[in-house]
């Protein structure tokens, strides 16, 4: 970013790599096999939802 040169990797590759780690962690912690809905960008199993969301302490929040 400082030099304005193209990064070594594009953002889509980074997102897929991070997603694979997050889904693996959620699967391990929920002890479930997770099915990923690529079009809806969500996990089909509701039992894994608590492992894929963060609770922020006040006054911090993430508004997207």
Task: Report the helical percentage.
Answer: 25-40%
Percent strand equals 5-15%
- Counting copies of identical and different chains, the oligomeric state is single chain
Structural category: mainly alpha
**Measured distance between first and last alpha carbons:** 23 Å
Short recap of the structure:
The chain is mainly alpha-helical and 64 residues long. The protein has one helix at 11-30, and strands at 36-37, 42-43.
What is the secondary structure topology, with strand pairs?
Blueprint: H1 11-30, E1 36-37, E2 42-43
Antiparallel strand pairs: 1-2
Task: Describe the protein in words.
This protein is mainly alpha-helical and 64 residues long. The chain is built from one helix and two strands. The protein has a domain of 42 residues. A two-stranded antiparallel sheet has the order 1-2. It is extended, with a radius of gyration of 15 Å. The chain starts with 10 loop residues before the first helix and ends in a 21-residue tail after the last strand. The mean pLDDT is 86.
What tags apply to this protein structure?
31% helix; 64 residues
């Amino acid at each position: 970013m400082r030099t304005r040169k193209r990064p070594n990797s594009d953002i889509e590759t980074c997102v897929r790599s991070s997603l694979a780690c997050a889904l693996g962690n959620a699967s391990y912690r929920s002890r479930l096999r997770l099915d990923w809905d690529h079009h809806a960008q969500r996990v089909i199993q509701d039992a894994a939802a608590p492992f894929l969301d963060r609770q922020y302490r006040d006054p911090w929040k993430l508004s997207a």
